[in-house]
Amino acid sequence: MAILTREQILEKVARGESLAGFDLSNADLSYAVLKGANFTGADLREAHLQNANMEGADLRQAKLDRAFMFGSNLRNARLDAAEGVDVNLQDSNLEGVSARGVRLPHVALLGSTLERADFTGADLRDARLKRAHLRHAKFDEADLRGAHLVRSDLSDASFRRADLTGAVLTNAILDGTDFTEAKGLS
Amino acid sequence: MSIAFEYQNNVLIVHPKGEWMGGPEADEFRKIIDEALQQGVVYAVVDMKEVTWMNSSGQGVLVGALAKLRSSGGELKLANLSERVRRPLRLTRLDSIFEEYDGVEEALKTFPQD
């Protein structure tokens, strides 16, 4: 369980103090303004972050198992090497996010915006990306086995050397999408 | 999100800026709508020109305002929607319940004139 209350967490963020490495598991931070907050390596497992505004936040190497981040704003946030299973990022804004090497198998990203996001080398097995907006996003060398990309917009996105074995791309928009050396495409 | 607003010819014009996410940030918008209704203003235009992103909670706030204004005999119309903001409205089929215009002036012309 989190060692800080919601109020204490928000005070720290407001003062610009780092929350790197803190145990924030199960914390209720829904609807909170967490712009630019430093959560590097923090434990956010099962945290409630619905509709939280985390624009520009640093979540590198954060633990995110079952974090509920529905409708959150993560524009230009850093998620590199973060990891978690069953993370809910549905209806969220991940525009410009840096998520290189992130490990989020079975993540829910339905209807989310990932425009210009960098998911190079990410583990996104069985990710649910239906109707997501992936324009100009980068998924080079990502593991997207079994990912669900139905009706998503992949225009000008890059999937070079990505593994798309078993991925479903029915009715996806593929204008200018780069699948060079991608695996599993039939 | 920040919100500016003005009145023109008994029509409320709201200018939100940034991410439209619902929640506490939307309380100000609800207050603006309520104050307009208290003054007898039942027509509103939301100028979405500077809205960069909108989630489902934000859509819910718009729908709530629309319902409130319509129940008072008014209407809420949207102007200057970018494709990225229109898209979630289309996905949820809410685009069918809002009247949408290319600009605020175009929307204003559609309201009954005094």
Topology of helices and strands:
The complex is a heterodimer of chains A (186) and B (114).
Chain A: H1 6-14
Chain B: E1 2-8, E2 11-20, H1 27-38, E3 43-47, E4 50-54, H2 56-71, E5 75-79, H3 83-91, E6 99-101, H4 104-109
Parallel strand pairs in B: 2-3, 2-4, 3-5, 5-6
Antiparallel strand pairs in B: 1-2
Radius of gyration of chain A: 16 Å
Structural class of chain B: alpha/beta
**How many angstroms separate the termini of chain A?**
46 Å
Low-confidence stretches of chain A: none
Helix content of chain B: 25-40%
Rounded mean pLDDT of chain A is 96
The stretches of 5 or more residues of chain B where confidence is low (pLDDT under 50) are none
Q: What best-fitting shape of chain A do the alpha-carbon axes yield?
A: elongated
Considering DSSP H and I runs of 4 or more, what fraction of the residues of chain A is helical?
A: under 10%
What is the C-alpha radius of gyration of chain B, as a whole number of Å?
13 Å
What profile does the largest beta sheet of chain B have? Answer: 6 strands, mixed
Explain this structure.
The complex is a heterodimer of chains A (186) and B (114). Chain A is low in regular secondary structure and 186 residues long. Chain A has one helix at residues 6-14. By secondary structure, chain B is of the alpha/beta class. Chain B is 38% helix and 31% strand. Chain B contains four helices and six strands, in the order ββαββαβαβα. In chain B, helix 1 links the parallel strand 2 (11-20) and strand 3 (43-47). In chain B, helix 1 (27-38) runs parallel beside helix 2 (56-71). Chain B is globular, with a radius of gyration of 13 Å. The model of chain B has no long low-confidence stretch (mean pLDDT 92).
Please outline what is shown here.
Chain A is low in regular secondary structure. Helix content of chain A is 5%, strand content 0%.
